[in-house]
């Protein structure tokens, strides 16, 4: 029991990290708290690891905090313990359990343990202060984006056979030259670690002797982006699969992406995707930040859809965050998740309807639109005035590139284009003066 400021006694629950589960993994503090606890909870495997310290006391095998709260509320106690694998601060159930116990007015104390990351790196003789910690245990993870960006990644797996599947993802993404280590059943008698393998070699190892669910991997990529002094941030026009569909040119794409300001959790619409060049770069922006965002490429033209799909597969492989939507906006947007960012590259004369649907789906959506005709630019200006966007900008961009003509160079001009940014509509709709644009 803990004494509160009003001099009343308050029950306390110890959230105890027990390390990997072996008998020598408990810290002295963890042992002391378990000896004092009048009730002990945890998953069955965790309880088996500490059964010598819980003999003669009530024990509950459970995963869900709600079950634990109900059980503890059914009898009197002063000190209780919840045992959890690894460390309480590293991909642990301690956070959710701690919130549930605190809501009951019980005091909560976290007792740290040895994490799988620190244990594995110690067994490999490696430091871990620069390792990117990740988990695929019950959560989505864009592994290849992380491996491309970070030199060293540690990942917790959750299902049998997942080690081989993960290596197949790496090979399919062109990352077959990275080095992988895999380990399972840490601290137990049947502990197993494989050293310095390529993904292909680990696939063969897994096929001969499958890894189970309690598996972790360390992946090192010496060519990771964080090691590159001059990374390739943008794609060139020649990188894309081309057809007879117009494509937004490279310098314009870069300006559009800069105006959009895409974060890692962004939900992006590319409306009138054409070849998919902007949608592809949207996805690259998200994945470069190792985010969990998503891109919806919306297009009604069959040839353009095929090109968008081909370019999406070329640059993003099987990444589930690149979604192709066939149909005409705004109807094709109806069942999609609300956007945070949208680029309107083609509106087929329905610009206002599209903007209206975007703003209704998310009033804070950030919209960038392009126009090559004065009529479309006029539609954009009318929307800016009618919606009273607090951020409303329109610029005219023209890029010219030097081209060799014999012994001299001349500028080859591209068609000028209008680019507009709109965000945060004003409910009271005030006029936007021309000089403010």
CATH architecture level-2 label of the largest domain: 3-Layer(aba) Sandwich
CATH superfamily of the largest domain: Vaccinia Virus protein VP39
Shape: elongated
Tell me the number of helical segments per DSSP (H or I, 4 or more residues long): 13
Strand content: 15-25%
- Estimate the mean pLDDT confidence: 92
Q: How can the largest sheet be summarized?
A: 7 strands, mixed
Q: Would you state the CATH class of the largest domain?
A: Alpha Beta
- How many strand segments? 21
First CA to last CA: what distance? 65 Å
Number of domains: 3
Radius of gyration: 28 Å
Structural class by sheet pairing and helices: alpha/beta
Give the oligomeric state of the chains in this entry, treating copies of one chain as homo and distinct chains as hetero: single chain
pLDDT under 50 segments (min length 5)? 429-437
